[in-house]
Amino acid sequence: MGSMKGAGALIAALVPIAYCGAMVHYFFSVGGGSLQGVNAMGLGPTVLGLGALGLLFLVPLLVRLIRLGTPPRPGAVRRASHANMPVEKEAFDAEAALARYMARKAKAGEEVPAAAMVVPDSPAATPARPTFGRKIS
After folding, report:
1. DSSP secondary-structure letter at 129?
2. Backbone dihedral region of 118: left (phi > 0), alpha (psi from -120 to 50 degrees) or beta?
């Protein structure tokens, strides 16, 4: 999976470089295939800017190629992917966490408030919360 991700990143880095190169080639062919022809048509700054952008887009490609060619450092830890995590560790069970907390409190001998033990049966049993913003009288 990692090699496909790296290949996709390399292809994505090549797209803007290819676009700038194709545009420079097109403008040169329209201008007669010479710098004088391109300048005579007024496309000199455009070709110069496209060349500069193409060179700037080369930097991430070169960085990716260098990273692809060098081995990882010995102390480097690889990041874990969420796709590889088991489902049990990925999900958080709030009820189990509350049960562990209550058991720990009971084991320590502390008094557990009765309000913490009561779970409302329906949302209508809970009091209405105040609204945010300006109070309407």
Report:
1. P
2. beta
Round to whole Å and give the CA distance between 39 and 26: 14
This model's pTM is above 0.70: no
Taking the C-alpha atoms of residue 51 and residue 42, their distance in angstroms, rounded to an integer, is 16
| String of DSSP letters for 27-82 | HHHHTTSSHHHHHHTT-HHHHHHHHHHHHHHHHHHHHHHHHHHSPPPTTPPPPPPG
pLDDT tens, position by position, 36-54: 888 888 988 999 999 999 9
3-state secondary structure of 110: coil
57 close to 20: Cβ distance less than 8 angstroms: yes
Over residues 83-109, mean pLDDT: 78
